[in-house]
Amino acid sequence: MNWFITAEDLRKLEPAPLIFDLRFRLADLAYHDQVYAEGHIPGAFLVDFERDLSDPEGDFGGDHPFLQPEAFANLLEKYGARDDSLLVLYDEPSLMSAARFIYQAKFSGLACPIRILKGGYEAWLQAGGGTEKDLPKAPGGGNLTIAPAPELICRQDTVKAQQADPTSLLIDSRSPGRYRGETEPRYPVAGHIPGAVNYYYEDILTDGALKDTAFLEAHFADLKNYDDIILSCGSGGTACVNSLGLDMVGIPHRIYNGSYSDWIKNPDNKVNTGDKP
């Protein structure tokens, strides 16, 4: 599955697709509104990871629960999305928000095609694309069919059961320093879920896109020895980037939505440090 579209190809598309600006930074919640106001691709709607792609009342655990499929469809229908709409996303080089959007769409069972702008907003500017500062009006009138896939998201009890299963593997997508417990910028307890192995999401990225398929095949080769791959991170964001890479090489997987933020809320749960899973 190739998730990407170049700026040159995007400029040629007729009719124009629905475009979404996803330039969110978890360490600076004001950033997204600021850069969007300074300039965005004409007609692009702002969809924010924190406000729009997370449900604070959700029941999946952790800091950023996924939306229920109906709520996600309603969000996109506000912008006129239909089953045959092409949705194009652009993001920061980390691709966290775009990847989260795509996994949310998979979980919701949407049929509409989705692409990520390779290289993001900077690539658009370098290709001579125009910009605007005005806030486009949401047209409404969308109509999306959903086919929820609840098996794509798992909770803490599933992860605990997985720990005793040699055919299952838990992936931690955070940085090696956070995995080892050497640093922890967000949570009071440093380390990782016992049994998790570290596949840092940034290792599969280059210039605002995924690395090539040959790299991804080699990078994820050992995962083909397992029947059940569960991705985790801090709270269900960067795990979705690894999901994009696994999609590219055809390795089935699911995501522990609550991830580390959910795991450490239970004081009975152990946490490991160092390189040992």
From TrEMBL:
GO terms for molecular function: thiosulfate-cyanide sulfurtransferase activity. Pfam families: Rhodanese. It comes from the Bacteria. Coiled coil: none annotated. InterPro entries: Rhodanese-like_dom, Rhodanese-like_dom_sf, Thiosulphate_STrfase_CS, TST/MPST-like. Keywords: Pyruvate, Repeat, Transferase. Residues 13-133, 164-272 form the Rhodanese domain. SUPFAM superfamilies: Rhodanese/Cell cycle control phosphatase. This is Thiosulfate/3-mercaptopyruvate sulfurtransferase. It comes from Peptococcus niger.
